[in-house]
Amino acid sequence: MEEIMNAKEKATDIEKCPSCGANLTFSPEKQLLKCDHCGTEVEIESAVSEQQNFEKLFTKADSSWAKDTHIFRCNNCGAKEILEKKTIATNCSFCGTTNVVVTEELAGLTPNAVVPYKLTREQASVKVIEWAKKKVFAPKAFKRSITPEEIRGTFNPAFTFDADTVSTYSGKLARYHYTTRTVNGRTVSTRHTTYFNINGSYNHNFKEVTVQACTTIPLMTINKLLPFETNKSLQYDKKFLHGYTAAQHSKDGDKCWIEACGQMENSIRAGILKKYTYNEVVRLNIKTKRSNISWKYVLLPLYIGHCNWKAKLYNFFVNGFSGKVTGKVPTSTLKVFFLVAGIVLAVAAAGVLYWYFG
C-alpha cells in the first residue's frame, strides 16, 4: 500500500475530435483518425520507417522503471490506474478510452516503427468464420453457429534486422545409390554410400529478419501468422495506437539479435546445402561475417479473441494487416474415428493385396 501511495504519476495521451470533442480512433479502412460521433476525419502524417544504427540496440533501460510503481492518469475522465510497466497503450477501465503512454515516459528503447491495422474488427471476425469453416475435423454444428467474441486489437512488439553476410564453409556429405539382385526369386535392394567433401563461400543479404519481443503469445502462434509486411512499416506515431492496446518488449534487443543470428545461420546452412545433391550431412562447418547491420523496433497488428462452444473457449489470432488466422477449434470425435477407421481399412486392404499378389 505504501508503494502505491508513493507512486509517481505519469502522463498519457488521447486524441480529441476538433469538431465535437469526442474521442478519435484509428480507422484501418481509411488509415487516418476518425470520430465515430460526428464522422470528422483527421489525416496522419506518416513516413516510411527507417533502420536504426546497430550500436543503439544496446541502449539499457532506465532501472527506475522496474523499481518504481507508476500511476497513469486518463486524460479523458481523470481516473488514475496502476498499469503494467511494459504497457504502451491501454483502455481506461472507467471510460473505455484508449490512453497512449507518451514516448518520453517509456523506459529504454521506444518503438520506431509500426505496421498499421488494415482490417477492422468486423473484417477480422469474417476472416475467423471463413477460417473455421475450412477446418475439416470441426463439428458441423460449430461451423454453422460460430460467433467470434471479445475481439480486441493488440499491437505485438518485435525487432527486425537487416544484415549482409559472407560465409565460408567446409564439410562432408553422403549420397546414396542402390543396386538390385534376385535372391530366391525375390528382388533384393542394397544401399551403397558415396562420401564427398565440399567447401566454398556463400553470400546473402538479409532483410527484415523478424524476432518476436514479447513472450505473452507463443512463438509458434506468431509464426503461423507471418508475414506482417514489416518492409511496409511506417515511422512510429502514437496516433496509430488509438483504439487499440499495445505492450513494450519483454525481451531486450540484444537477446532478439542473438535469435535473429540463429535464424540467419539456419537460412545460410539451408542455402549452402541447396547447392548440392545429397542424402546425408556428415559434417558442415560454417564461419560467417556480418556487416551493415541495422534494426527496427516495430509494433505488429494482432486481433485476439475466442469462440465459445459447449462451455469451452477456443482462442484465435488474426494478422491485422493480412487477415491470416490461426487458433484452435473443437474436434468432432466422429470425424476422427471415421478417418482412422478408413486408414486402418486401407492399410489392411493393401496388406491383403500384397500377400495375395506379391
Give me the secondary-structure topology:
Blueprint: H1 2-5, E1 8-10, E2 12-13, E3 24-27, E4 32-35, E5 41-42, E6 52-53, H2 64-67, E7 70-73, E8 80-82, E9 87-91, E10 98-101, E11 113-114, H3 121-133, H4 140-145, E12 149-183, E13 186-212, H5 219-223, E14 234-235, E15 245-247, H6 253-273, E16 280-309, E17 312-319, E18 325-327, H7 333-357
Largest sheet: 12 strands, mixed
What distance separates the N and C termini?
Answer: 81 Å
Which radius of gyration do the C-alpha atoms yield? 27 Å
Discrete helix count:
7
In the predicted model, the low-confidence regions spanning at least 5 consecutive residues are 1-7, 63-67
- Number of DSSP-assigned strands: 18
Question: Roughly what is the average pLDDT, rounded to an integer?
Answer: 84
Our estimate of the beta-strand percent is 35-45%
Gross morphology: flat
* Helicity, as a percent range: 10-25%
Succession of helices and strands: HEEEEEEHEEEEEHHEEHEEHEEEH
Descriptive tags:
358 residues, alpha+beta, twelve-stranded mixed sheet, three-stranded mixed sheet, 7 helices, 40% strand
Descriptive notes:
The chain has helices at 2-5, 64-67, 121-133, 140-145, 219-223, 253-273, 333-357, and strands spanning 8-10, 12-13, 24-27, 32-35, 41-42, 52-53, 70-73, 80-82, 87-91, 98-101, 113-114, 149-183, 186-212, 234-235, 245-247, 280-309, 312-319, 325-327. With 358 residues, the chain is α+β, with helices and mostly antiparallel strands. The strands form three sheets. Strands 2, 6, 9, 10, 11, 12, 13, 14, 15, 16, 17 and 18 form a twelve-stranded mixed beta sheet that branches. Strands 1-7-8 form a three-stranded mixed beta sheet, with no helix packed on it. Strands 3-4-5 form a three-stranded antiparallel beta sheet, with no helix packed on it. Strand 17 and strand 18 (325-327) form a beta hairpin. The longest helix is centred in the C-terminal third of the chain and has 25 residues, at 333-357. The relative contact order is 0.19.
